[in-house]
């Protein structure tokens, strides 16, 4: 930065003389900002991070499937690890894509966790712990978390009613496992179904208008 004592102006760059009066310039102690703002670029964008995660996921799936084929599928834990990788990848992608919708992220993560736990239970001899304890306990926790998050974020019922409806449908699927005998101790599942049915009835009776508005928003009715 240079200074013209005659014109009393600061001049950018390195000039031999003042462009206004052609006088002698002096070095100025004033440090001015650059003419163009400096934009700070993120080291890794979200899209690049998603691509990296997807590549790593596919590469690991190929490696484990190759090992599985070469060992004639003797190691059952490899299938569990591969499913765990799928669950991890879905969780990462869902979190990045739905990062502004906490309820949707939690709902999808719970759904993935339920599928993974049931698969692991079946692959390890199916002791039934997933259907007896994990699924009903997770669904009850999801209902509590949904209501708490909605209250903290001050959401209207029509903004999260459909998540509760989806949770109700997931809880009703437990009836299939009870009827075919896969759930040997149906009390926890029955209690979770009962809680969700009561919650659903309360929404229909007391907040039907909000439920209708939520349906209209979703289906553009």
Describe this structure in words.
The chain has 221 residues and is mainly alpha-helical. Among the domains are: 1-35, no CATH class; 128-221. 66% of the residues lie in helices and 4% in strands. It contains eight helices and three strands. The chain has helices at residues 46-70, 77-97, 102-123, 129-152, 157-172, 174-179, 187-206, 208-219; strands spanning 2-4, 9-11, 26-27. Strands 2-1-3 form a three-stranded antiparallel beta sheet, with no helix packed on it. Helix 4 runs parallel beside helix 7 (187-206). The longest helix has 25 residues, at 46-70. The radius of gyration is 30 Å and the shape is elongated. The mean pLDDT is 84.
Supply database-style keywords:
single chain; 221 residues; mainly alpha; three-stranded antiparallel β-sheet; elongated
* Overall strand count: 3
Shape: elongated
Q: Please, how many helices?
A: 8
Measured distance between first and last alpha carbons: 64 Å
Give the proportion of residues in helices: 55-70%
> How much strand?
under 5%
Query: Which strand order spans the largest sheet, edge to edge or round the barrel?
Result: 2-1-3
Arithmetic mean pLDDT: 84
- What oligomeric state do these chains adopt? single chain
Give the ordered list of helices and strands. EEEHHHHHHHH
- Structural class, from helix and strand content? mainly alpha
What profile does the largest beta sheet have?
3 strands, antiparallel
Which spans of ≥5 residues are poorly predicted at pLDDT below 50?
A: none
Q: What integer value in Å does the Rg equal?
A: 30 Å
């Amino acid at each position: 930065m240079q200074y013209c004592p005659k014109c009393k102006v600061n001049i950018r760059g390195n000039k031999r003389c003042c462009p206004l009066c052609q006088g002698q310039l002096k070095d100025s102690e004033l440090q001015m900002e650059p003419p163009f703002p400096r934009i700070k670029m993120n080291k890794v964008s979200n899209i690049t991070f998603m691509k990296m995660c997807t590549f790593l996921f596919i590469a690991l799936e190929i490696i484990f499937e190759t090992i599985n084929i070469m060992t004639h599928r003797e190691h059952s834990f490899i299938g569990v690890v591969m499913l765990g990788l799928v669950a991890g990848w879905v969780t990462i992608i869902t979190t990045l894509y739905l990062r502004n919708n906490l309820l949707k992220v939690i709902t999808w993560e719970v759904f993935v966790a339920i599928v993974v736990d049931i698969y692991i239970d079946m692959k390890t001899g199916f002791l039934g712990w997933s259907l007896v304890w994990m699924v009903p306990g997770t669904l009850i926790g999801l209902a509590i978390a949904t209501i708490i998050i909605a209250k903290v974020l001050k959401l209207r019922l029509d903004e999260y009613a459909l998540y509760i409806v989806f949770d109700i449908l997931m809880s009703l699927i437990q009836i299939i496992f009870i009827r075919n005998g896969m759930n040997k101790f149906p009390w926890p599942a029955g209690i979770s179904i009962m809680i969700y049915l009561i919650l659903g009835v309360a929404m229909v009776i007391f907040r039907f208008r909000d439920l209708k508005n939520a349906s209209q928003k979703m289906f553009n009715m």
